[in-house]
Design brief:
By secondary structure, this protein is mainly beta. It has one helix and eleven strands; from the N terminus they run ββββαβββββββ. A six-stranded antiparallel sheet has the order 1-7-11-10-8-9.
Length: 155
């Protein structure tokens, strides 16, 4: 599941991604402080059963949303573009959202998180974006303003 960008930021950013790492345009990306590379959310190790810790740690390193596709067969590091601020539609577990609600990354189980699905977040510390629309019960898509804390001071 990927994110559908509605209003991109301008200009986009570029980051170095690892060799043989696949992701699609519209997927969540993070910056690994160990090597400085931009990676898909699925490569972020979550904090086990603690969803809040996972969201907090991911929020701090959230880089943005991929604009380029990266194939697993690309066997050299390469620069790829991404958006550090964007308004986008994305999948979410069935929930009720209103304007201003915070969203964070969704864990897909141990050890990873999902590349293109968000869920409710408790605070700005755990959030990677805020909801910009109102949605009824059991909404499975939500429009979000994503903001990377790596490149911007606040959501």
């Amino acid at each position: 599941m990927s994110i559908n960008i509605i209003l991109p930021s301008s200009p986009s950013r570029v980051g170095l991604v690892p060799a043989s790492t696949a992701f699609d345009a519209g997927e969540l990306l993070w910056r690994d402080s160990a090597d400085g590379l931009i990676k898909p959310a699925s490569l972020f190790t979550n904090m086990g059963v603690d969803a809040t810790a996972t969201q907090t740690n991911f929020s701090a390193v959230f880089a943005g949303i991929a604009q380029d596709r990266r194939l697993v067969g690309e066997n050299a590091q390469a620069l790829k573009s991404f958006l550090d601020i964007a308004i986008a539609d994305c999948d979410c577990p069935a929930q009720t959202f209103k304007v201003g609600d915070k969203v964070g990354v969704l864990r897909s189980g141990v050890p990873n998180v999902t590349n293109g699905t968000v869920t409710a977040a408790a605070s700005l510390t755990t959030a990677i974006g805020v909801v910009v629309g109102t949605y009824g019960n059991n909404a499975t898509k939500v429009r979000v303003k994503f903001v990377s804390k790596l490149f911007n001071l606040m959501i």
